[in-house]
Design brief:
28% helix, two-stranded antiparallel ribbon, 21% strand, alpha+beta, 68 residues
């Protein structure tokens, strides 16, 4: 079982193998032993897909964190 599905009550999309699958920044809120936690799933900094630049991914993550 993947950590994200274990900690949340709703199934999340999970890739298999080493190929990247996260395109957007996804935020999931959950309760763990009565405490609120936030899980942030982001595209990988080392994403190998064509046209994906590390600087763009970092900028997107920074913008999303600032919105929280």
């Amino acid at each position: 079982m993947q950590f994200i599905n274990w900690i949340t009550s709703e199934p999340q999309t999970i890739g298999d193998g080493i190929r990247p699958c996260t395109n957007d920044i996804n935020i999931v809120e959950a309760k763990v032993e009565g405490r609120s936690v936030v899980i942030i799933d982001t595209p990988g900094i080392d994403d190998t897909r064509a046209g994906v630049k590390q600087a763009d991914i970092v900028a997107r993550i920074n913008r999303r964190l600032e919105e929280m």
